[in-house]
Structures are given as C-alpha cells and as structure tokens.
Amino acid sequence: MTKPFPNQTISTIHYTNPLAINHVSNHIITCLPKTAKQIIVLCIGTDRSTGDSLGPLTGTLLSQKKLKYLNVFGTLVDPVHALNLEHTIKEIYQIYENPFIIAIDASLGRAKSVGKLHSGLGSITPGAAFNKGLPDIGDAFITGIVNISGLMEYSVLQSTRLSLVYEMATKLTTILYHVDRSMNQFSSQKETQLTPNIKINRRYTL
Q1: May I ask the CATH class of domain 10-187?
Q2: pLDDT tens digits for 21-46?
Q3: DSSP string, 90-117
Q4: Cα separation, 108 vs 25, whole angstroms
Q5: Global confidence as pTM
C-alpha cells in the first residue's frame, strides 16, 4: 500500500474506462527516459492479503507475456513486500546499470475512487499507511485503488474482493504489455535507445 500521492502530475482514470489502456500506457511512455536504460516493473505487495495482491498478481500475469524491454520483479511466487523490498532494490541496482523503475502497487482511497488507476512520474512509499518505514521507490508509478481507506485498514485489505483485484491486475497487465510493444517504435527514434529485456533467474528464500 502506498502513501498519499506525491506532488507530481498524476493521471487518473477508472480501470473499466474503454480508454484506460491507451490513456495509462501513453502516459507511462511519456515518463520513460530518453537515454538507454533497463526498464524495471517492480510489482509491490503480498499474496497473503487479497487487497495487497494487486502488484504480485500483475507481475505474475505480465511475466507470462513475451516481453522485449520490460523486466518484471514481484510475482505471486516471488512477491516483493515489506520484508524484502530493500533487498530487492539493492539487487536491481546490482544487476542493472542505472535502471528506470516503474513501481506498481495497490492503494486505498475514497469510496467513489475505488477502481481508479493513478499514474505519474515520481516515486511512491509502500506501506506508509501502516508506518512501515520503507524507502521511496520508483521513477514512475501506477497505483490502483482497491478499497476504501479509513479505520481497520488491515481488515479492509483482507476483505477486498478478489474479482476486483484480478480485473484490475488484468487491465494493468494489458497496459504494461502495450507499453512494451509500443517501445519498439519508441526506441527506434534517434534520440532514444532503450535496452532489451535481460533474462534472469531469481527466487527469494525468507
């Protein structure tokens, strides 16, 4: 879960909006660097909480695609959460030189905002709502509001409907796959040379 959004320009759209895929993917593409970098999709969350599984579920679905440019961290098998986030960040910077990280996470918000996707340039702070003291992460981000914020947020996360989280994760997967496919044309521009996906084998043991 993330803290309230930073003061960057944020794009907002409901995941069921027919324009959501193009809207969010185009916004993320405008956030990408104009120099050669590895693009990391860091999907944050845990499979032990329905509401907080948006990230690892997205990572799992996305890792099943044939990606050319995006490198995925955080799946249902190897989730990235409070216990290993700092280790994962260090690992990313050991494997990749000057990576550009797109952070994916779930969030809580107002009732009328449930289902909305927020994207922007800048970082998020996972676990800030629960005072976990985790570091800011991400050069760009996409977060999805999965339930209502307020009292007893742990219980709210546990009672979040899996159908909603799965539908949002499926839409995020399509958005990010669209980003990966669009980068073929994007990377062909003279001023931009993005680096292809690096295949690595990894698994956490906690």
Answers
A1: alpha beta
A2: 999 999 999 999 877 689 999 999 99
A3: HHHHHHSSS-EEEEEEEEEE-GGGTTEE
A4: 22
A5: 0.87
